[in-house]
Specification:
Helix content is 24%, strand content 28%. The protein has 1970 residues and is an alpha+beta fold. The longest helix is centred in the C-terminal third of the chain and has 62 residues.
Amino acid sequence: MLLPHPNSNSTHSCRSAELGRRSFTRAGDSGRTECSSPGSCQVTPRDYLLSFSLFSLFPGNVVEVVSAQQGVSTFLSELAKPRDGTTLRRKGRGRATRCPRTSSRPKTAMARRWAWPFLVTAASALLCVSCAKNPEFHSDTLINNVVQDPRTGRLYVGAVNALYQLSADLLAEARVETGPRRDNRQCTPPVTDTCEDAVETDNHNKLLLVHGAEDRLVVCGSVFRGICSLRNLSDVEHVIYFSDNKGEKSYVVSTEESVSVVGVMSYFTKERDNFTVFLVAKGYGSHDSTKLISTRILRDYGEWNIFENIIDASAVQANPFVLRYLHNFRFAFKDGHFVYFLFSRTLGVQDTKNFTFISRMCQDDQSYYSYTELPLNCSADNRFNKVQAAYVTTPGEVLAQNLTRSGKYGHILASDKVLFVTFTSDEDPSISAMCMYPLRAINTRLLEIIGACYSNGGLIHGSPAVYSPYSTKSGGLCSSNQPNRGAKFKCGAEFLPSPLAGKADVALVAEPSLIRKGVMTAVAVSVEMGHAVAFLGMANGEVLKLHLSAHPELYGRASNEVTGDKVNKDLLLDSQLQHLYIASGKKMSKVPVQSCHLKTDCQSCMSLKDPYCGWCVLEGRCTRQHECGRSSVENTWLWSPNQQCVEIRAFDPLSLSCHKTQQVDISVPALPRLRQSDGLRCLFNGSFSDGVVMGSPAVIICSLPDPSDIPPTPEHQDHVSIPVQIVVNDKIVVTSGRYRFYNCSATVRKNPNTPCISCVTSEWGCQWNAREHRCSDTDGAADAGHIIKPQQPERCPQFESPEPLLIPVGFEVPISFRGSNLDIYSGRKFVMGTELMKETEEEVMQEPGSNFRFRGYEFSYSKRQEVNVSFHVIERDTKRKIDSTLTVTVYNCSVSRADCSLCKHADAEYHCVWCAASRACVYRHLCPAPPPALCPAPQITDIVPRFGPLNGSISVTIRGSNMGIKQADVKRISVAGVECRHLPDKYSVSTSVVCEIGPAKRPPPSDLPVESSNSGVVEVEVDGGRTGRSQVVFTYRDPKPDAVHPAKGPAAGGTVITIGGRDLDTASQDDVTVSVGGVPCRVLSFGDIITCKTGKYRGPKVPSDLLAVKVNYGRNTSKEVAAAFQYADNPKIADYSPKSSFVCGGRRIVVTGSGFHLIQRATLKVVPVADDFSQDNATVEFAQESLSKNDSVLEFLSPAVIWSDSRSLRTVLLLDNAEEELKAFSYHPDPTFNELPKTVLTGTSVIIVTGRGFAKAMTALEAQAFVGDAFCNVSILQDDKLILDAPSSQPRARSKRQRRDAANDPLELVVKFGHGEWVVGSVYYAWKDDIPLAIIIPAVVVPMLLFIAVSVYCYRRKSRQAEREYEKVKHQLENLEESVRDRCKKEFTDLMMEMEDQTSELSEARIPFLDYKTYTDRNLFLPSKDGAASVLAGRVRFPESRRAIVTQALNQFSNLLNSKPFLVNFIHTLESQPDFNARARGDFASLLTVALHGKLVYYTDITRTLLLELIDEHVNNKNPKLMLRRSETVVERMLCNWMSVCLYQFLRDSAGEPLYKLLKALKHQVEKGPVDAKVKKAKYTLNDTGLLGDDVEYSVLTLQVLVHGEGPDVTPVKVLNCDTISQVKEKIIDQVYRNLPYSQRPKVESVALEWRPGSTGQILSDLDLTSQKEGRWKRLNTLAHYNVRDNATLVLSKVLHTQSFHQHPDNSEERNALLEDDNTFHLVRAADELDEVKSKRGSMKDKSMTKAITEIYLTRLLSVKGTLQQFVDDFFRSVLCSSAAVPPPVKYFFDFLDEQALRHDNVDEETLHIWKTNSLPLRFWVNILRNPHFVFDVHVNEVVDASLHVIAQTFMDACTKTEHKLSRESPSNKLLYAKEISTYKKMVDDYYKGIRQMVPVSDQDMNTYLAEVSRQHTDELNTQLALHQLYQYASKYYDAIIRSLDEDPAAQNRQLTLRLQQMAAALENKVTDL
């Protein structure tokens, strides 16, 4: 009986040397199935209990482990199989397999029959929970198509012969077998027995379409001529319609597997009926219908049957085109009123190159007249020309901005659609690319093509651009006499040309976002946080993730298992955009779009570069933004692609002594803002300290640990570095770093010879106590002579400057040196020593002064020629080392100078001589005899080579000694009696001479008795006539090669040939070269034989002729073996199998082909491919030599690969030099095995092993399995299952240790795939049935039945409740949707009507600039919007008798103001007064500007002086960024005034015009829609708070206005019938007096408006007795109230007395009645909302719905913004364009700020940017933008003013450096220009950068400019009044000013006090003693 072991803990282990061991653990008693590794699940006690029950029923038959992925249901399916050897076919996902028949007892069989129902019930309750892995679905056959129902999330999978209905989690809900079916393409359906050729034919799914409105699924297959069926979406097993007897009209799709088919749902109208259809586009199959595109009906209608083609458009369905153009449809979709098809095709029979097209036609086009094709080019040269897959979605904010910025497609919005397309190339099919095409651009280009053909003769830019595809007609297609036909006939017409196609010249071109090796077969795009992410399916099964940023970047792969099958083009995202559905081969996977949670630290999270991910700082995890608790707080969630982890910027103090403790300031600029409840602590090396966060940027203050807690200073270091962590809430580490504690006493370890210098020069700021000879921390004690402070090494007691610096070994040389700072050592004795003195120390003798002397030491050293020796000096009594920088060089003459010549070659300063007595090179004083004048004769020890060719010309190297000191010493060389030419560049002093031999002596004539000899000695003669002769002999001889083996090799080269012959080792290897037929052959070895490797043969024919092998000796000797070698054809690889291997290797690979006998070495090599995501870039390779080979077969074992990613491996076959890539060969991860319980076997058992990935790279014949030491036959191998035949008898254990155990102990079950070996579990043999069945069933089944019953009851109760709630919510949503739809339609219509250009109207009127005086008054003294009277209006009032005195006094005051000391004191004194407020400071600065306007150069100097003080003040206070932020000081207001004065001319010349156009355009746009006169809200505005949130019915009227008293001419004026009478007056005045400035126009109150509808006239007013009343409210009269019609005539006349808004001219009774109540309104009542709340009628649901729906009116903001965008951009460009003329004051002032930034260290670029922004854009331009009446003589109403504030705020945002993170909660005004902000920011940066790069403005040029301004305009200003008002401040603060002047020496020197007193007395008419 089979007995499971619930407590077993068997282990899987891989015995492969490369793979190590793997282990799996069990979840204990949790009752759940847990996964411990991919592909493996633990078996829980519940599973064991169920297994126990099941196996008791079926003893001796099947032993199986059920994986958690399969669940118990699969287990039961195995048990359900018939035992009679037949195969069970069942409906569903599982696959029935035949099992071997085994013996069973009748009792067991009977038990099985009655126990089966109980087991099914029990098993269904115990289905294994899914593992922690991606959901997967496995089809039995190849998957063709996948579609998703967007309403339910269900998936429908069309596969070969099957259709599946899956849940969103890929659980199978239904399965339908659609094939195979008896069919033949020649037979017409229905196929009966009369079709004799019919056979079982696979049914490939060709088309799936979801018809959600009718809950139907369209399913089309390849059998029965491509007919379709309708199925129920909720249950695909339910067939709604299928008929195979309707004939050819019902044949929809292609019957051929290779022909592509696409479809899309649409609609069709006939008479008054509107019904759903679907459009089908397909290529051509040999037995298909000839329709390229067809429209298929989905219901019976009249004579039409379901699926019948209801449109017969021959233009795109004619027969001749189909074979000619080779269409390959890849994608179809609809958008708006159009459907689109994406396909590739050829241009005709002659041209076989593919081109990609997108075609478009109207949805309800009943004749396909609108069908138009547009070529799409991916890359400028259309390199990627064949479409593979596509996807349509919105691009997100960032991609939309990037597409707009590219300038190719116009303005792209985030809400626009973009078509993402993958392409391949006909030139190189192994690479592919992705391109993007905005639908807006596609439609625009299609309209150009249509318009060109309808109206312009088919010409675009003068060139033919349109033709008719699929037509033989040429010419005459397009017409040119009907303009605007394209707009009129948007869907074509019968009399218009069709179909149309654009020529290649008008193709829409896009540059690839990504080019990659491999084929992109699928694409899907999602948007995260405004960023688009593309998922690209590849042909090898992987899915890449591409961040579509400005520079698209691959950042990862989807987590699907790569099977090697290509990804299906239907790559889908779930409804929440959280998961990706990937179909490849027979498998579907659901994988998350991100895997942020797998990264556990910030650095790895940031390295993902995943737009979905970011580091949640305060939670310490990698998350998506919405998963991070406080992600809206800055720096709390750090985005992976472009942010950095929180880091410690700095410590203050930077380090600390290890003997101290104090607080440390830790700078963490990116620290998130914490709440009060958050705790923050610092962790120093395990020791916690509470922290306090201060300031911004954040600084954390923590206490450092106690010195006792600091680790000891490591040896050889002077500090210890301890880890620091910033911890929030005691668990989250926000950031970390290291803090250094230094130990001054350890600094002397750096250099023990200089303890003081090492101490005081250390980076720690240590000081040296010379008296105590100690290094310590710096203290604040007074300087003492014996204390050397940090960085004062020159004060250290020290010995220095040794003489001499060169000391020979073996001879005592006295050394003199100098001492300094040795006062405290006066009278002390010193000794010195060094390592070479062998622990002896010699006394130092002091000489007069600070000089010292050391008598020397006889050093011994022979390792190198020289060595540097440093001496230490020690005070003899205290043994303390005194600083010594005494370093000398000890040298040994004899080292590397073995002969006399080398000795003489030594540098003269060493004084080395050759001592003949000792035959050695020594120091001159060590040789008793004088050195010889000449060295001995040369001695030759060796000659290389010793043989040379008779013709010579090879190099001979002569080695020996005393062969000269320099190359010129060599006078003559002879070799065997032949002169040898010296090669000086190869000469080595004394030891080596190289020369080139000449040819051997010719033999003498035969009649002479002298014998010739080709051998001889070598002689070298050097300078002085000394000659050396060699003992060895050099011989000339003639080499004779005569044999070559092998005689044939491949043309690729790499053959190692061996050359045999006589005397081949003549010369040396460097002199020998070999060539075969002129092709170099690289010499490998040289000797009695020569071997070389052939190169690649490039001759004209292969096989080549027999070629000579030539051996060259030197330059003049060439020997060859004729006809010795032939280049043959390279070996050819026909095939190889198998084509895959596991990474453990060892699989036998057989390569077949021809020509392998020529190969000497065959190697199978695997190399990693450079990968975008690989962290390991090491160059490694894995190789395996061939096992055997013959002419046609090579055998290898696949190499074992140790590589993290088996997908990025390249397999190549090296055949000598030839390299063949095995492109189809793939490596797969090693298989995983599920845990096998210890099981009992019988002699007839079958062992079933489950797992994953078995069939990826293994077959049953190759796999091996062992139980103990016995072999198990592998009978069946499937991807997830192995079926093994157990040994018939019990085998022995494999190991000796196990054999000693008991006989019944478990035996290991080992599975071996190639080199990989896995222990998958243990089994043992037993023969008893112990446990009765009757015990198992009650114990297991009964509790399970109770559990199931309770669960079913709860489920049904909850389901009914949920259905009721769903219906309720659905009804509410339908009502809401209907309301929104109606309103949106209206808003969209309004939006399209209002987008028009304003430039033509604006250019007509002149620009009413203010004169200079008014301009300065308004800018300097800031009046109201209506321009109140100037502060300086009028004159100085005084008696006429005092005029001369007062004038003189004011002139004296002016002179005082022109004294810089006085004016600076004056300003400082005023600013120090507490009651001198901001308003007073502004007025004072403005008065000063007017008073000094005549001396602007002086005024500029004062401003500059005060600014320098202001800058120093802010920088010293460490808040430089706050400078110039507000006008809180006099100088800030003076600067603003200076800018206003200097830029007046620039406004008139440049910036004024675009500003005025913007103002006029904005006013025009606002007045085109209703404006509420009371609440000041408008339909068209940029300000959301001023948006009129109601639908106001109105119409445009054109009034004919006659001005009374100004002639008979009438002026047409456009108004709205909803305008009040005052509004109408304003518009009439604006139009009639448009050429007059506003100040010269009549006011609204001063004119009357009279309407004369008949003979009598009627005065129109806002309120009269006819005004309508609504309760207590009274509506203002409008033109509609008076029923004024279009083209009515009105008379405008002036009145003598103005009336108020509520008055009537004559009747006092009416006037009193009107004044009774002032509750007037115009369009909406201000208190409507209050009334609505108080109202008792209406539900809260209706009110909340109304409130929500008002948000749709925000679309009007976009309408106005779009209309005005060009005007806003023009103004911004005029202000922020450095390429145009920049005013000199701006350049001058910005250069001044740049200089000040350089002057201060703590002013960075950001601060400088803020200064410039505060001084010009925010101080001047924003003021002008908000107050255009400061520049122009205009009136700005409240609505226009509110919109100008939005534009001004955008300008301010553009000038700031801070990034504004926007969200749905952000104000609409911020969101309105969110996309443009980045462009404007760049404009500001470029403006500042451009100004910096301009030529500086000199002081002289600036002064000239200022003087000219003074000259032109000073006379216009009232300087006398300004002086008088300035004096009022001097008078008010007179005493304080006098005191200030008295304290200033400069003022005293100029007698400024006296002058002020005299001036005051004269001005105030006082008699003084002065």
